[in-house]
Amino acid sequence: MRDHRHEPALNAAVETYVTPGRRYLQLLNTPFLSDPAQRQAFGRALAEDSVRITDDELELLLGYEWRAQLTASWLVAFARRAAHRERIGELLLANKRIYAGRGFCFALARFGTEEDARLLVDYLHAFLPRTDRGEQDSAMGALSHLDARLGTEHSARFLGETGLWSRWLHAKFPPDRADVPVSLDQSRDVIRTQCSYADHAMKALPSER
Fold this sequence. Notes:
The chain is mainly α. The chain has one domain (4-203). The chain is 65% helix and 0% strand. The protein has 11 helices and no strands. The protein has helices spanning 8-18, 23-29, 36-52, 55-62, 66-78, 85-94, 100-111, 114-127, 136-150, 164-172, 184-203. The mean pLDDT is 93.
């Protein structure tokens, strides 16, 4: 198993951006989004690091395990480092790291273009028929968010009573379950909140950046 401690450049990137304050765990559970005491300081640190990190460091993190990938995708998203779009799309479709996909979907939503919508559509076509592992709800939320921003209807192809989204929900959660913990509105609101958080944090950086 690969260990970043045996690779100096990767280890430096992990220790600088991923592990301090267990940042990766904060990004997984996002308590800072609802905690006023954390919200501003955490967002400022992310914004500063999203500008400071180099493309080489981002590539190192994106090529490692889920904690590094999740952190890298948030940094990419905050500063809209669109040079990493293709790599993020490849990683999302590969679906090899559980949890990291949430960050990939956020990054694509944050880039905000038709190309990003296409990558999400490709992922959903491949993984909505599956329930074993994936971030289908995050991808649907990101695509729906992009539809609202772009004036498109890409997500419509997956909706409806017999659409892939409904079939995934019914397959993922027992039909007699009273509380299905996922809905399109909830998934879209998560992405919208993340994008708004990034917008505010980046705008708060000193103008010389």
